[in-house]
Amino acid sequence: MNGVLKVVDHNRPGGALLSLENLRTHLFTSKGVVKAVDGVSFEIKAHEIMGLVGESGSGKTMTGLSIMRLLPSPPARIVDGRILFNGEDLTKMPDDEIRKIRGSKISMVFQDPLTSLNPLIRVGKQVSEVIQIHSGLPSEPALGKAIEILEQVGIPEAGTVASQYPFELSGGMRQRVMIAMAVASRPELLIADEPTTNLDTTIQAQVLSLLRQIRDSQGTSILLITHNLGIVAWICDRVAVLYAGRLAEIGPTNAVLRNPSHPYTQALLRSVPRTDSERGKLETIPGEVPRLTRLPINDCHFHPRCPHAKSVCQSEQPDLIQIGKDHFASCFIYSKDWERTK
Amino acid sequence: MTEPLLEAVDLSKIFPVRKGLVFKKTVAEIKAVNHVSFTIGRNETVALVGESGSGKTTIARMVGRLLRPTSGRVLFDGSDAWKLKGDELKNMRRKIGFVFQDPFASLNPRMRVRDVVSEPLAIHHLMTKKEREERVRDLLVRVGLSKDDATKFPHQFSGGQLQRIAIARALALEPSLIIADEPVSSLDVSAQAKIMNLMHQIQQDLGISYLMISHDLGVVRHVSHAVFVLYLGTIAEVAPADEFFQRTLHPYSKALLSAVLVPDPEVLQKRPPQLLKGEIPSPLNLPQGCKFNTRCPFMQPKCKEEEPPLAPTDSPEHTTACFYWEPIEKGEIVPRF
Amino acid sequence: MFSREPKLVEDSESARPLRYEVLAILSRDRIALVALLVVIAATVVALLAPYIAPFDPTQQQLAGSLKGPSSIHLLGQDELGRDLLSRLMYGARVSLLVGASVVGVSLLIGVFLGALAGYYGGKVDSAIMRIVDVFLSFPGIILAVGAVAVVGPGLENVIIALILINWPGYTRVMRGETLRVKENVYVLASRGMGASDSWIMRKHIIPSAISPVVVLATIGFGWAVLAEAGLSFLGLGVQPPAPSWGGMVSEGLEYVLIAPLMALFPGLTIAITVWAFNMLGDGLRDALDPSLRI
Fold this sequence. Notes:
heterotrimer, B: alpha/beta, 8-stranded mixed beta sheet, 4-stranded antiparallel beta sheet, 12 helices, 12 strands, globular, C: mainly alpha, MetI-like fold, 10 helices, 0% strand
C-alpha cells in the first residue's frame, strides 16, 4: 500500500483556491534521495489562513517552494502529484506561464527580509517596480502607488521610507516592505515562510496582525509556514502538521491545538515552553528527527519516537483518519481494529 | 545571606561611532548599556530578557570578561574581574563557561568533538592526553550523547546535539557560572525542551549558576529564578520569576509578556496580544525621559521629562523603573493603543 | 510516558573526516584528476631524473646536432647533439624546485603576516599592508627582472626575486580570510575559555583561513614555473649548460626554422605543467568550498 493518496472528503479539486494532491518533491543528492515532501495533500480555501507547521526537515519550506515552482533544481524535483491552483495544475505549467502567476496571483514572503531585498535600490523603487511589472503603470504613478501600499502595510512616513535603502530600515520595517511588494499585485494566495522568525516578539505580533489585516481587507488566502505553534494558534484558521515529509495531522486550529490527535502533535505541544506554566522540566520527544535519506517506505516515520507504537507502525503507512469535523490524523490508533493490533 | 557568586555594579557600555579614513573622529555614541546592576546567587538562574538593542548580549559579554565595560565593576567571587591578572585571571576564566546561541557557529567545524570539548582543558594545560579523553567521554555521557561521538565532526550532528556538545565544553573546567546567550532560540521546539531540561538537570547535579539571556519568556519561565527586563540598555523591571509571571508592573514587561503567543487559541482569544505601537528607537538617538515613552500606552507628560529610577515596590525584591506602576495596576490610567 | 531512549541517527556516509571528503570531491572532478596525475608525473620525473633519463643532459654529440626524434633520442637532439628528453627531465628539477621554493616561502610569509595583520588590525595591520601595497604597486615580472639584473643571474637569485613579488598576494588573501574567520563565534568561545592569541591563531584562525591561500598557491606554482621559464628565456635564470625549460625554449628559438620541435617540446611541457597546476587549483577551490559539500 505504497502511500497512495487517500482522497479525504475535504479535498475536492476545484472547490478550493489551491489544492495539493499527493505532492512528492524529492531531492536527488550525492548521498541519496531525500524525500523532502512525500505524498502531502491539503487544500487552501479562499479567504483562509492555513498554517503549515513542522520542525526542520519536515518539508514545510519545500512544500512552499514547490507551489511557487521555485525549487532549487538540481537537486530538487517534483516527482509526483498535482498542485491545483484555481483548477489548473501548476506542476505541469510551462515556465513562462508560471512566471506570470508568480508575484501576481501567488506571492511569497521569506524569512530573511534583508537578503530578499536588493541592497542597492531604494525601497520605493523596489516596490514600484513590482507594481509596474504587474500593472504596466509608468514609473511616476507607480511610485505614488508604492508609497500608498507602504502606508497600508503600516509604515509610518512612507514617503520618507520610500527614498531609503534597505539597510537603513529595521528588521520589522524590511519585512513590512517585503509584504508590501508581495501584496502590491493583490495576489489570491500569499505564501509566508517563517515571516517573523528573525523579528523581536513585539514586532512579530505587529507583523502577524498585519497579515491578518491583509486577509480581512483583500481576501487574500495565506499559507503561513512556521515552526511556532503559538503563531498558528493566534492567526491560522486551519493547520497542517508535517513530520518527515508527510502529513501527520490536519484540521481547524482549535481542534488540532486543543484536541491534538497525532502522537507527534501531542508531544510537540507538550514540549513548548509556556509562560503560563511552572518552572521545571518540560516533556520531550525522545530521539531525533530522522535523516530523510534513510527512511523506510512502508512505515509511520514517527514510530521510533512514538510511545504508542505497535508492530503495524513499522510495516505499514497509516492513512489519514477522520477524528472530527474536518479534522484528520494519520495514526493507526484511530483505526477500528487498533485494540486488536499487535 | 551568603555572598553572591557574581555582582555587576553600575555597568555601562558606550560604543563610539567613528568616521573618517585616516583620522578617525568620534561622531556619535551608542549607549548600549546604562548603569545596570544585578547579582547572581549560587545555584541560581538569572534571566536577562529583552529585544534586540536591549543590551543583553553586551551585558553578558562584559560580565564574562569578553568586552571591557566603559564604567562599572564586575565582582566575581568577591574580586574585581577586570582587575585580575595572571593566574588569578586564569582561575576566574575557569569558573565561567559560555554557551552561545547558534551551535553551528560556536563549534569549529574543522575540529573533532573530542578536540572541541577538551579545548578548554588544553588551553589551561590540565590533565594528560589520556585523562582528557576520559573526561571528554564522561562529559559527553553527562550531556546525553554517546562516548563514541568523540571522534565525529560537528556536521554529523543536529542542532540540538551540537548544543549538547557546546554545553559539554562549557562544563569541562567545572565552572560555577555558565553564561548562556539565547541557548535554545536557534533550535527546533523538541530540541529546545531537551536542552532546557539538560541545563536544569546539570544545575541540580552540579550546583552551578546560569546567566541566561533570552527573548523568549516561555523559555525564561521554565528555567529562571529571577528575571531582569531590559529596554534600550536600561533595566525596566526586576522580579523573582514566580512573581514576575504572576504580576508584571512595568508597561514594557506587560507588553512583552502579552506578545508571547501561547499555543492555545482559547487563551489567546481571552487575552489577545496587545500591540505596541512603533519600533524600538535607535540607540544613537535615545528618547528623553523614560526610554519607553515613545511606545508606552500609559505615557504621561512627566515620562517625557524625567527618567524614572529603578525603585522598590510594595513587594520585596520586586523593583521597577516606572513612575506610574501603581495607578496603572489599579486601572487609574487608561491605556491608549 | 516516553520511556524509550533516544537513538542517535547514524550516517556512515558523512562520518568521514574532511580531507577524505575533499579527496572524494576532487576525484569526481575529471579535469582536476588529470591535472593531479600530470603534477604527480612531473614530480616523479624530476625526482628520478638521474635514474630514468636515458642520457646525460649535458653530454654533447655533435654528430647528432639538430636531429629530429629517433628511436634512441625519443624527442630528438639539440644544436649540440644533447638528448632533448633528458634535458626536459632534468629541466623539470629546476622548474619544480623554483615552483616549490617560491610558493613555499611566499606561503609561509603570507600566512604569517596576513594572519597577524588581520587578527590584530590597527597599527600592525596598517604597517604590514602598506609594505604589501608598495610591492604590489610594481608590475611583478618587471620587478623580478630588475632584481635579477641587479644581483646577477642564477637559480637562487631567480627564486629570491620571485618570492619578493609573490608574498604580498598571499599576505593580502590571508588577511582577508583572517578578518572573516575571526568573526566566528567559535573564536569568541575560545577567548571565553581563556585562550591566548597564539592559541587562537594556531587552532582556529590559520586552519580555517588557509584553504583559499592553498588554492592560490597551486595556481602560484604554475605561475612560478612560467616566470622561471621566462627569466631563463631572457638568460637571467639557470646558466648553460644546465638545462631549464625556459632556457631550452630560448635556445630552440634560434633554430626554429630548421628544427621547430626543439622549441616546441619544452614549450608544450611548460604549457601542460602550468595548465595542470591551474586546473588543480580550480578543482581544489571547489572541493574546499563547504557550500558545495552536500
